[in-house]
Amino acid sequence: MSNTRFVVGIFAFAAAACGPKPVGNQIDASGGGGGGGGLTVDAPACATSVVTAEQVALDLYVMLDQSSSMDESVSGGTKWSAVTGALTTFLGQSGLTGVSVGLQYFGLPGPDGFDDSCTASDYAVADVEIAALPGVASAINSSLGQHSPSTATPTSAALQGAVDHAKSWAQAHTTDTVAVILATDGEPTECDTSLTSIDNIAKAAVMGTPSIPTFVIGVGSSTSNLNAIAAAGGTTSAFLVDTGGNVNQQFLDAMNAIRHAALGCVYSIPTGNGPVDYNEVNIVYQPGNGGQPVTLPYVMSKANCPATGNGWYYDNPAAPTQIILCDSSCSGIEVDQSGSVNITLGCATIVQ
């Protein structure tokens, strides 16, 4: 939701003014409100101050294939020129506040300086370290200009190094969302070429703590293995770029789709106004068309999200650090460029 406004209303508890009668410390949304999806509250009437909410920071580590096959011709140039051009365009876009990007390539030189490295730790060191946009864009663009396709495809070592770097980064940046992007045009050709082994690298990363998802962009026709890597890495399927079409635009579209998919509708819990009572948090969506505000009901976890309708949950109910909208809510709210989402504190939480 790159252009939708987010605000937090901080207000004193006033149950009578803030909607339905509380049930314990929470408000039951199950009765009289169509399952909670259409409930509204007059949150501004309770507000004593308003501050801007912060969407969770997103950190992307891109592992880019520089194998010799990336020099193959496509419409408008080569795979390499189309992909690197798309990366440059992505980095230069507006609306990327809160997004950080880092970059490494595969293959990298091995110990003898000639053969490609099969050592994961070589790929766990960034060529350009993860840093915030737009500042890091110039360093990445300079790096891209110093590389060209010339290697084989050591996918296993590269992916292991990528997820290792991302995990280490996530451990040091605990409030950020961190993900790996594997961009490649072919099957693995050296090191451990077992597709099962490569899938297991992605699976272990997303199942670990911290969880690191792997997004995959495949360029060309030799990409039959990539959907399995993405599925194992928790991102369902790869973004496949048809080299018979506009490769540059398809790759750019994939990067933007990954940005939204990785971040979703995830917000930091405001902490600047004293301790938060997590039983007194409400999420109110104000449609951009001037319609009535809609209070999204709380559900216990992602597993409890409705297939349709509204809902939100905490990343960790025992010790919350993030507010996450259910996919069914996020998908509708993201397209409302003029709408707003309010996080209001102080009135009993409406629950599904």
Verbal overview:
The strands form five sheets. A six-stranded mixed β-sheet has the order 9-8-5-10-11-12, with helices on both faces. A five-stranded mixed β-sheet has the order 4-1-18-14-15, with no helix packed on it. Strands 2-3-19 form a three-stranded mixed β-sheet, with no helix packed on it. The protein is elongated. The model is unreliable at 1-44 and 47-52 (pLDDT under 50). It is α/β, with parallel strands linked by helices and 352 residues long. It has eight helices and 19 strands. Helices cover 25% and strands 25% of the residues. Helix 1 packs across helix 7.
For this entry, give a set of tags:
352 residues; 25% helix; elongated; alpha/beta; 6-stranded mixed beta sheet; disordered N terminus
Structure summary:
The chain is α/β, with parallel strands linked by helices and 352 residues long.
Strand content: 25-35%
Note poorly predicted spans.
Answer: 1-44, 47-52
**Derived structural class:** alpha/beta
Instruction: State the shape.
Output: elongated
Number of helices: 8
Q: Give the strand line-up of the largest sheet.
A: 9-8-5-10-11-12
Report the sheet with the most strands, covering strand number, pairing sense and barrel closure.
Answer: 6 strands, mixed
Number of strands: 19
| Rounded radius of gyration (Å) | 23 Å
**What is the element string, with H for helices and E for strands?**
EEEEEEEHEHEHHEHEHEHEEEEEHEE
